[in-house]
Amino acid sequence: MKNIIRLFSIFIILSVILSCDKINKPYTKPVPPVPGNQKVLVEEFTGHRCTNCPDAHEQLHQLIETYGDSLIIPIAMHYGFFAQPLGSTYPPDYKSDAGDMLGDFYDAENEGLPTGMVNRIKKGSSPLISHDSWATYVDSILRTSSKINIEISNSFNATSRELNATIKSTFLTDFNTNLKLVVVITEDSLISPQADGANIVADYVHMHMLRVSITDTWGELIVLGSIAAEEELEKSYTYTLDVAWGEKNCMIVAYIYDETTGEVIQAEQTSVIE
Amino acid sequence: MKNLLILFCLLITSTLTFGQIEKGQLHGSFQSDFQYYNEDSIIGATVPAEQIGLNSYANFNYMLGNFSAGIRYEGYLPTLNGYDSRYDGVGIPYKYISYKKDELEVVVGSFYEQFGNGLVLRAYEEKNLGYDNAFEGVKVKYNPINGIYLKGLISKQRSFWEFSDGIIRGIDGEVSINELFKKMDESKFVISIGGSFVSKFQDDNDHPFYNLPENVSASAGRLNLTAGKINFSTEYAYKINDPSSDNGYIYKPGEALIVNTSYSQKGLGVFLSAKRVDNMSYRLDRDATLANLNINYIPDITKAHAYSLAAMYPYATQLNGEFGFQCEVNYLFKKKSTLGGKYGTRLSINFSSVYSIDKEAVEVEDLDSLVIGQKGTDGYTSEFFKIGDELFYQDLNIEISKKVNKKIKGKIIYQNQIYNNSVIHGAGDWHGKIHAHIGIIDVTYKIKSRNTIRFEIQELYTKDQYGEWVSGLIEYNIPNWFFTVMDQYNYGNSDSEKKVHYPKVSIGYKKGTNRIQIGYGKQREGVMCIGGVCRNVPAANGLTLSITSSF
């Protein structure tokens, strides 16, 4: 009996001693530079009626501020119940067919908003990650070596509103899997109401909004089976921009993902108008 | 875990083989809820690809002397509308074996546990809410001498069909003074004290921005005093720095205090309670959301309502900060008194009110200014006894219950409610406070023995959000059978297209411990918000079938 009491006492003392990490200031730490050739796609599911979504927008903004807008490739998908228009309080409909398809596929409504994906890397069985976890994934990805280089060249006819975009992919390593290319248009700086905590911000600036997928939502198959390092592929697309979209605020986003794992390997973006 | 299952089967087999030596007992229960969905454009109900939903649970517990073992099968094929679809699938997520030898009890596998009021640790399941945060590990209970009760556990935690990456460690001790000292055995003063210490471990995953604590502890102390008709209990909990999604990655320690006092005598009961909560979300994953991976539980300080319109705006504890009070008086007007009449009259008055806590800004170096809740800072300071300015919830509930004669009994309820939709609900569907008056009449008429009919009428009056609602229900009971017809009607909705009826009919059969219920009706859309995440629960229209059984 005494042995049991002793064991129990030791267990208690060890638990108390070993189980506290009191953090002293500063709580934050500087971020070491990243190599700069690997980019990362951050897709968020959001909605103007989602009171907590501005926290996720702020998180995305912090990532762009920290690592630079050339490395963080953002897409904001207004999706589901919280993106529905609501009378004069939330009039615009920012949903898109591509965003709806991806949201349904990944079951974002069930997970709850805000949520998002970082290069669609899975945590458990789903790639949906709480916005406070994005930074860890982003930092980790940005410290890896790039396996593909993507270049986007484009032209825009202001009269016909026709956009021509060529996506050149240079493979920096051998791939033995199917790869797909997705090209989408996003738009920045749309001003309309957004729920923010207990308040409505009437002139909220919505950024990185997914407008359309120029390719199929799940992309175009560009590598079937395998491709060797140093090979290059070019794909060209033409798309007429909706008149309601401000071309000066539109971006072309291209990303390549592994069809087997669903994970994004590389991403790139450029403005519709230079 | 497969080994546990094999051991469970071996236990049963060995007992069947040697059943003559010592007989074991097998108990179980079964619940299955099925729904077939129809499309309904009026309420926005859609049909999932599977067209049906099915949640099923079956518990089997086997006891042999000081040994016990059990499993629970769960099947979600797919998960019913309104439940988290991450449960989709079938399996046996809950299994345990335990034994007791003298003062020591050991449980391995899955288990639930609560320390004190649950302020620092509570694992429980509520299948009807889709909640299950079972622990998976080892639990030890030890009772060295009469009056001293010790518990210790180390475990992971259930997260749908997986387990947490993090680990929870906890110890709890309770001392019953009356049991410990023989002189106190007969005393009318009953005293017990207790304390808990819990620590969670989660890897910091080399977070690029913040120095994160990997071991976060929470501790609590409690006291329970009973002196004749008066009871006083309190518990205080403290948690060290725990930056998380819930608190916006601030490093301020968390605190919670609960005080309950009650007085009771024949015909009269008075209950008073107060609660202060400050930054007390405590999860095994700092970025977990909704109802996932909660280690602790902060009890509600508001009345839980059973009637549908009274429960339309339910309060949810605000873990990031709230200051609440509750008072309840239950009085029985005696038989043959003026107000009591022939059978007596019960009066119950409950009042609860919850406010924000005081929060003062702290200096943020990078911004060179004072800010509340900035990530990567202490967040704010708060005077412990200072109540904040914002009302979260207020509820006045007056209930009169009376048996009129041998045939008729009933209840009349008036409720006045203020519900801060922006804070509690957290969804951008309606901003501001909802002020509601609710009236309920519930009458049961006894036709003859075990043959009753019950009528229920409810009305919710408000000019806010969806406007007025009315609800009616008729329930007819005969031996083994019950029949229910009900309807909810949102007649006051300012949008004429949303002035919608939500009818439901159901028939049930019960015999012994078996119960089968078939229903058809509509369920309105809702939004569930927990912490910083909201999930829409879509409307549904369809046929339901529920079966429950136990042995």
What would your notes on this structure say?
The complex is a heterodimer of chains A (274) and B (551). The model of chain A has no long low-confidence stretch (mean pLDDT 93). Chain A has helices spanning 2-18, 53-67, 97-106, 108-111, 134-142, and strands at 40-46, 72-78, 115-118, 148-157, 162-171, 179-187, 190-196, 199-206, 209-213, 220-223, 232-240, 250-258, 264-271. Chain A contains five helices and 13 strands. Chain A is globular, with a radius of gyration of 22 Å. Chain A starts with a helix and ends with a strand. Chain B has 551 residues and is mainly beta. Chain B has a domain at 1-88. Helices cover 4% and strands 55% of the residues of chain B. Chain B contains three helices and 33 strands. Chain B has a 24-stranded antiparallel barrel. In chain B, a hairpin with a 7-residue loop joins strand 26 (451-461) and strand 27 (469-478). Chain B is globular, with a radius of gyration of 26 Å. Chain B starts with a helix and ends with a strand. The interface between A and B is large, with 59 and 60 residues.
| Portion in helices of chain B | under 10%
The main β sheet of chain A shows up as: 5 strands, antiparallel
Q: What is the mean pLDDT of chain A?
A: 93
Shape of chain B: globular
Class per helix and strand makeup of chain B: mainly beta
Report the end-to-end length of chain B measured between terminal Cα atoms.
26 Å
Distance between the termini of chain A: 80 Å
Structural class of chain A: alpha+beta
Q: Summarize the largest interface: chains and residue counts.
A: A-B, 59 and 60 residues
Strand and helix map with partners:
The complex is a heterodimer of chains A (274) and B (551).
Chain A: H1 2-18, E1 40-46, H2 53-67, E2 72-78, H3 97-106, H4 108-111, E3 115-118, H5 134-142, E4 148-157, E5 162-171, E6 179-187, E7 190-196, E8 199-206, E9 209-213, E10 220-223, E11 232-240, E12 250-258, E13 264-271
Parallel strand pairs in A: 1-2
Antiparallel strand pairs in A: 1-3, 4-5, 5-11, 6-9, 6-10, 6-12, 7-8, 12-13
Chain B: H1 2-17, E1 25-37, E2 52-64, E3 67-76, E4 89-101, E5 104-111, E6 113-114, E7 122-123, E8 125-126, E9 131-132, E10 135-142, E11 148-159, E12 162-163, E13 167-176, H2 177-180, E14 189-201, E15 215-227, E16 230-239, E17 254-265, E18 268-278, E19 322-333, E20 345-357, E21 362-364, E22 369-371, E23 387-403, E24 408-420, H3 421-424, E25 433-448, E26 451-461, E27 469-478, E28 481-489, E29 501-511, E30 514-523, E31 526-530, E32 533-537, E33 540-550
Antiparallel strand pairs in B: 1-2, 1-33, 2-3, 3-4, 4-5, 5-10, 6-7, 8-9, 10-11, 11-12, 11-13, 13-14, 14-15, 15-16, 16-17, 17-18, 18-19, 19-20, 20-23, 21-22, 23-24, 24-25, 25-26, 26-27, 27-28, 28-29, 29-30, 30-33, 31-32
